[in-house]
Write a structure and sequence with these properties.
Blueprint lengths: L4 H9 L2 H12 L2 E2 H8 L3 H13 L3 E6 L2 E6 L2 H4 L6 H13 L2
Antiparallel strand pairs: 1-3, 2-3
Helix pairs in contact: 1-6
């Protein structure tokens, strides 16, 4: 069965809300409520976007009391200021999909 991970990653990154979440998480881990406040979006919108980002292994979370705190799960993105986005996505796909 062919792995469609890179295509799915591009689809996930093709959404402004999800890209904004990634940009905010580059700075520090945040809860859903914090993301809602900073992006001025409904909780359902943020939660859905985070679910898709988690499926592609862009973000992970840890429990903090009653809430979850989300952070970038790949060090590729946190230490990547000089690389073009396409190279980062390819590197992420290779590392997380066994390609």
């Amino acid at each position: 069965m062919k792995n469609h991970f890179p295509h799915k990653c591009f689809n996930v990154l093709g959404n402004e809300v999800r890209c904004n979440i990634l940009e905010l998480l580059r700075k520090k881990p945040l809860t859903v409520q914090e993301l809602c406040g900073q992006l001025n979006k409904e909780q359902s919108t943020i939660s859905h976007a985070l679910q898709q980002l988690r499926e592609c292994k862009f973000v992970s979370c840890t429990k903090k009391g009653k809430e979850r705190e989300y952070y970038l799960s790949s060090e590729i993105f946190t230490h990547a200021s000089a690389k073009p986005l396409f190279e980062l996505i390819e590197e992420h796909a290779r590392k997380n999909c066994g390609q």
